[in-house]
Amino acid sequence: MAVIGVFDSGSGGLSVLREIRKILPDERYIYFSDNAYCPYGEKTAEFVTARSRAVTDLLLSKGAAAVVVACNTATAAAIASLRAEYSVPFVGMEPAVKPAASGTRSGVVGVLATAGTLRAAKYLNTKGQYADAVRIVERVGQGFVELVESLDLDSPHAESVVRASLEPLLEAGADTIVLGCTHYPFLLPLMRRIAPADVRFIDPAPAVARRLADVLKTAGVPLGDPAPGVELLASGPDATLRKLFTII
Ligand code: DGL
Q1: Do residues 235 and 219 share a domain?
Q2: What distance in angstroms lies between residue 122's CA and the mean position of ligand 1's atoms?
């Protein structure tokens, strides 16, 4: 019996929790939305690291035996410090550049992520490994996090916001697009409508869920909770979190 903590700057990490629960349905989860401080993407790495510590302290005080950093921005800024400072295992997000680079037919991979993720060494190192083989074009999903946090997933306004960041990638020839922020999968139906049918979108969440299962096993965390389920917590108002939880 163990509690698994999952956090993000907001509700985006629910897209990761959804995949985790597909393969680990019998566990107890605490999901923390740090929405009083959202978005993380425009904040400094120091700020995001301080928030990640504060949220980790809270999750550990509630008994978390492992923590999923369901946020690309916090993973890039903070996971190395978290691993150095705490003894529980941490699983973070990886921008899915590798599967995108091996799957592209046009030779152009698009990456949508926050400014914090795109400037972080973690992303730049990953990108550097594939930059010789494929062309990588990037865009911040400007305003995407705000759309998701305001539950505006499908309006004409949402469409124009999404087009502004997605179309430049499509115009550059990207046929494979990495969703490098955990909020963005909530906008996937809209993105699919905007993009040509043969464009692939890659969400790393299923791979992160598999990684968590491996990490729990290796760490010997006992699986199978007598009271499986999800506790939802937020540092700000929790209406979006509760609503999005009903649709994942
Ligand atoms: N969902 C987050 C990520 O994956 C953070 C978005 C934000 O707060 O800017 O990067």
Answers
A1: yes
A2: 15
**For residue 204, what is the DSSP state?**
S
Measured CA to CA, the distance from residue 224 to residue 121 in angstroms comes to: 37
The reported pTM is: 0.96
Q: Ligand 1 centroid to 24 CA: how many Å?
A: 24
Where in the sequence is the domain holding 62, given as residue range(s)?
3-93+205-245
How many domains does the chain divide into?
2
SS3 sequence of 45-85: HHHHHHHHHHHHHHHHHCCEEEEEECCHHHHHHHHHHHHHH
Judge if the beta carbon of residue 27 lies within 6 A of ligand 1. Answer: no
Cα(226) to centroid(ligand 1), Å: 32
pLDDT in tens, the chain (248 residues): 689 999 999 999 999 999 999 999 999 999 999 999 999 999 999 999 999 999 999 999 999 999 999 999 999 999 999 999 999 999 999 889 999 999 999 999 999 999 999 999 999 999 999 988 999 999 999 999 999 999 999 999 999 999 999 999 999 999 999 999 999 999 999 999 999 999 999 999 999 999 999 999 999 998 988 889 999 999 999 999 999 999 98
Q: Looking at the structure, do residues 157 and 81 belong to the same domain, yes or no?
A: no
| Cβ–ligand 1 contact at 12 (below 6 Å) | yes
∠139-51-9 over CA atoms, to 5°? 45
